[in-house]
TrEMBL record:
Main location as per UniProt: membrane
Domain of life, source organism: Bacteria
Organism: Algibacter lectus
Protein name: GGDEF family protein
Bilayer-spanning residue ranges: 20-38, 197-215
Cellular compartments per GO CC: membrane
Length: 452
């Protein structure tokens, strides 16, 4: 449809490729960004659920710790006290680990290292109660392990401390759990808001792509398809016209071949260079002058005659008129010595910008030329005979005139003979058609004897 790398399909599909790459890249980027935000918040939410679970478990562990300490007070045997002490020690260890992990973070438990400002403040208040219960429990365990005494009164004070502070711990811990829950809910709401924003952003991107990419692309494709359909219609018409032209060309070629064959068989036809070298010579030409077509270096005048003077005349003729052309009669001589008269035309033409050729078209007029020469000879002979005859007649007339003049002179100089002669001439000169002159001459003749 066009040229040099900027055709319609290249421009259209290149533009479509760029637009689709931009659209897909934008969608992919929005999806990746949305996924990153969602993953980040999901990971945070996952840690939030772990934090809430661990914080809730702290309340249970504090209650269990208090319960086990109270069980020590009701233990009936030393062995039972030792068993309760071991469970208390495990509970205390887990309680301490969870308490520290909630504040400082723990990778194994999946707890974050940072807390919000509100939770940090609550943990500061909780640490005071935690330390009182922790130290009391540690003293009870140490007292039992040292076997100083298994009597209730020995650690009754620490039991009262744990029991009195356990309610404060549960109250503050409930506040911390509630705060964790509030912050988790806030994150869920923020995640929902984020998802809504990302959805709106995605819809805006899709709308923008629809308005600025897909819709213009659709219009471009529609216009391209219209152009393609128009081009297809034009191509079909061109193909039909090409078929018609091809048919006409084949017909013209056949006609030209027939015409060329007819020219070769009827006319003396040849193509030569401006230098006189033969390029092509017709069948009749080659047969008439016994020229071999395989001889592609022959000069035109050497083929046309075997007589040097005729060759020179033909060479001068071609050289002189190779640019202007010429038409006239020339004489040639075949290899058998037969003289031939030709009516020949020299026509210059250029098959391309760099090459000039001459067309030689001739017809044989030997018989007509012979007739013309014979007519000229006869006309010349008759003219000479007529001149000779006229000369004889003129000489005879002059001779008779001289004789008649001599005779008349003799008659005039003789007496009566002269008169009679004059009378005779007067009578002979009478014109009977002219009555007046005739009557006058008669009267004149009547008066002659009187005069005599």
């Amino acid at each position: 449809m066009t040229k040099n790398g900027n055709s319609l399909d290249q421009r259209t599909f290149g533009k479509l490729s760029r637009l689709y790459i931009i659209a897909l890249s934008t969608i992919a980027l929005s999806v990746i960004v949305s996924n990153m935000f969602v993953r980040q918040h999901l990971k945070a939410q996952q840690s939030d659920s772990t934090v809430i679970n661990v914080a809730g478990r702290q309340r249970m562990l504090s209650q269990k710790l208090t319960k086990e300490i109270l069980l020590l007070a009701t233990a009936e045997t030393p062995r039972a006290s030792i068993v309760i002490k071991d469970r208390l020690k495990e509970t205390l260890s887990l309680w301490q680990l969870s308490h520290n992990a909630l504040q400082q973070g723990d990778v194994e438990l999946g707890l974050p290292a940072e807390n919000s400002k509100d939770i940090s403040i609550k943990f500061k208040a909780l640490n005071v109660v935690f330390e009182v219960i922790e130290k009391a429990a540690q003293r009870i365990i140490t007292s039992i392990e040292s076997k100083d005494s298994l009597v209730l009164e020995s650690f009754n004070k620490d039991i009262n401390l744990v029991r009195d502070n356990e309610g404060d711990f549960l109250l503050i811990m409930d506040q911390i759990v509630n705060q964790y829950s509030l912050e988790a809910d806030e994150k869920v709401r923020w995640l929902g808001t984020l998802e809504t924003l990302l959805m709106v952003l995605t819809l805006v991107i899709l709308l923008g792509e629809l308005l600025f990419i897909f819709w213009p692309t659709a219009k471009s494709v529609r216009a391209t398809l219209a152009e393609l359909l128009k081009a297809e219609k034009h191509a079909k018409k061109m193909a039909f016209d090409a078929d018609e032209l091809s048919y006409a060309k084949e017909k013209s070629i056949k006609e030209l071949r027939a015409l060329s064959q007819a020219m070769d068989e009827t006319l003396l036809f040849a193509r030569i260079l401006s230098s006189g070298q033969i390029i092509h010579i017709g069948n009749k030409f080659s047969r008439r002058f016994k020229f071999s077509r395989f001889n592609d270096t022959a000069m035109f005048w050497n083929v046309m005659s075997t007589i040097e003077s005729e060759k020179i005349a033909l060479e001068n003729l071609v050289t002189k008129h190779k640019k202007t052309g010429w038409q006239g009669e020339v004489k040639a001589t075949t290899k058998e010595g037969e003289s031939i008269w030709l009516e020949m035309a020299i026509i210059p033409f250029s098959p391309n910008d760099e090459k000039t050729e001459l067309l030689i078209i001739a017809s044989e007029i030997t018989e007509r030329k012979a007739g013309q020469l014979e007519i000229e000879r006869l006309n010349k002979k008759n003219f000479q005979e007529e001149i000779s005859q006229q000369k004889i007649i003129s000489s005879k007339i002059i001779e008779n005139q001289e004789k008649e003049q001599n005779r008349i002179a003799k008659d005039v100089h003789d007496g009566i003979g002269q008169m009679l002669t004059g009378l005779k001439y007067n009578l002979e000169s009478i014109n009977i058609n002219d009555i007046e002159k005739t009557a006058s001459k008669i009267e004149h003749l009547k008066s002659l004897p009187l005069i005599l």
